[in-house]
From TrEMBL:
This is G-protein alpha subunit. InterPro entries: Gprotein_alpha_su, GproteinA_insert, P-loop_NTPase. GO terms for cellular component: cytoplasm; heterotrimeric G-protein complex. The lineage of its organism: Eukaryota, Fungi, Dikarya, Ascomycota, Pezizomycotina. GTP binds at residues 145-151. One of its GO terms (biological process) is adenylate cyclase-modulating G protein-coupled receptor signaling pathway.
Length: 324
């Protein structure tokens, strides 16, 4: 079975970037989404934003905070609640109006710790078009990459790079999904573990009392120590690198890792470098002593904005040694 020797398995906690990495590899190989696919993504993105906007409103309600303009926004909230029966134009107007409300934005920042990345950027895209009266919105590839769609089960596909076939496997990262992972383990040639570099500032959706980074480190340790992977190449990809500078300002690293030190201040390049090195050491320290360090590698990625060449370099790294 030639294919079985070329299997890339992507593991990692929920929202760490597994599916985004798969999408980027898919677009690199098969080309970017077609017009028809973009039209479907436009619907997915509107529904996603409508739901995330409602989540912020629910958070505000639970915490007893009010919108700056409750009367203006009342019909907009009704529109979002009636999704998907509401008119597209009304949904876009509702998103546009709510994301302009100062108190809504405060609620958004307060609820930040539980949210997926990029919601504000996507809301900004809809807002921009709605304010110009342009509907029939067509998402760009970057917009599509920024939408979070929860993966369930195991998704396995075969692709070709330079005419050579390889299998790539994406899994649902939620705690409840992980017992299914074992079915995807056999014949893996390289395990990718994606970890969100900003997760020190976030909590799990499944359990708001648990820091995402703690969960990612534990999960990484269990994968790195799994008996089926003792001789399997392991590549850790730290994602969401683009988000760090903004996050450092609002969320000091020492709140999560009191022993972290840097000679630079948050917002300066030295701080980011020190933080990433520190994080990499925290992951590496979870490797079993007996693992040959030559079979372990760490990459850093901004899966939304990195250029095609970078994605191709990542793919080549993953396929090294796995192509006969
Ligand atoms: N800004 C930014 N967003 C990312 C990056 N990687 C993933 N995301 C976003 O993070 C969210 C979760 O990513 P996804 O790939 O679905 O995570 P999965 O649950 O591990 O499959 C999505 O909204 C992605 O757009 C990254 O490097 N930078
Ligand atoms: Mg996924």
């Amino acid at each position: 079975m030639a294919l079985a020797a070329n299997k890339i398995l992507i593991l990692g906690a929920s929202q760490s970037g597994k599916t985004t990495l798969l999408k980027r590899i898919q677009y690199l190989i098969d080309g970017e989404p077609t017009e028809e696919e973009r039209a479907v993504w436009a619907d997915t993105m509107r529904t996603y934003l409508a739901n995330e906007t409602m989540t912020v409103l629910d958070f505000m309600k639970k915490n007893g905070t009010f919108l700056q303009y409750p009367d203006i926004n009342k019909p907009h909230i009704k529109t979002l609640r009636n999704q998907p029966r509401s008119e597209i134009r009304d949904v876009e107007a509702a998103i546009s109006s709510l994301w302009k409300d100062k108190n809504f934005l405060r609620g958004f920042y307060w609820s930040y710790r539980t949210q997926p990345a990029n919601i504000k950027q996507l809301a900004g895209r809809i807002q921009h078009l709605a304010d110009r009266g342009q509907h029939r919105y067509t998402p760009t590839t970057q917009d599509i990459l920024q939408v979070f769609v929860k993966t369930t089960g195991i998704y396995e596909t075969t692709m070709h790079y330079n005419s050579r076939p390889f299998q790539i496997c994406d899994v649902g990262g939620n705690k409840s999904q992980r017992k299914k992972w074992i079915h995807a383990f056999p014949n893996t040639s390289v395990v990718i573990f994606t970890a969100d570099a900003t997760s020190y500032s976030k909590v799990l959706c499944e359990d708001e009392n648990e820091l995402r980074v703690a969960e990612e480190l534990t999960l990484f340790e269990s994968i790195a120590n799994h008996r089926q992977f003792t001789n399997t190449r392991l590549v850790l990809i730290l994602t969401h690198i683009d988000k760090l500078d903004n996050i450092f300002v609002r969320n000091p690293v020492t709140d999560c890792f009191p022993d972290f030190t840097s000679s630079s201040l948050p917002g300066f390049p030295g701080y980011k470098e020190d933080y990433l090195t520190d994080l990499e050491n925290r992951f590496s320290s979870r490797l079993p002593d007996e693992r040959d360090r030559g079979t372990f590698q760490i990459l850093r990625a901004d899966l939304i904005h990195d250029g095609l060449e970078t994605v191709e370099d990542i793919l080549k790294t993953l396929l090294e040694d796995t192509i006969p």
